[in-house]
Structures are given as structure tokens and as C-alpha cells.
Amino acid sequence: MSQATAPATSPSSPAPPAAPKDGRTSERSLARRLAARPEIGALIAAIAVYVFFFAVASPFREASSLANVLYESSVMGIMALPVALLMIGGEFDLSAGVAVTTSALTASMWSFQLSMNVWTGVIVALVVALAIGAFNGYMLVRTGLPSF
Description:
mainly alpha
């Protein structure tokens, strides 16, 4: 068995030549890396809309107005996130809107029409939404139909 050893280099020997740089390996600036990301366009648009309404509408400058905008954005975002994840995975689920509407109607009916506690209506609405999701999932797996 022989062992191969690397040749020793002396300090006076020249360094090996650097690999030539092409466009793929060159370092890009921070601005170019940010411009390549698709979410930056949405962020710039959101900032532009905010600046526009801040300049044009004086009630928009109040903190309560910003709280309303953030509240409405969270309502849309809570539903947009799981639907977006499904779309990234190659699926398309139209039943998400039906489940949200049905659970909201269930909560309101149990809370106000049946004069139950609000928390009872919320719990029943969550059970209904879980039942809808479980039924959809079971049908998709069992039948092999596409989620659309």
C-alpha cells in the first residue's frame, strides 16, 4: 500500500491562476439581487399605494385608519396564505371559500339565532369547517379526482 502525498509548494512559488469569471459566478449587487425577487414588486406597489393615500386623503393619516387597513389585510391574508400554498403545490381548491362562508354562517346562527354563547358558535363553526375539510380530503384521496 502506498500513500500519495501532495507536492510541497514553497513560499516563493507563484500561486495557481484564478479561474476565469463568467457572468454566472460574478457577484451581483444588492439592488440587482432584490430586483430579481418577485415579491419586491408587490412590496413596492404596496408602499406606492400607501404613499398615495397618505398624500391625498387626510383621514388616512390617522392611526385608527391604519389599524383598519391592517385588520382588513389580515382577513384577506389568512385565507390567501393556504390557497397560495395549494397553488404552489399544483392544486387549486375552490372549496376554501365555501368552508369560510359556511363556518361564518354557522357561528352567527348558533350565536345569535339560537341565542347560544359566542364561544359555542365559534367551536361549532370550527367543527363544521374541519368536517368540510375532512370530507374534501377524503373524497380527493378516495376518488383520485383533481382538487379543482
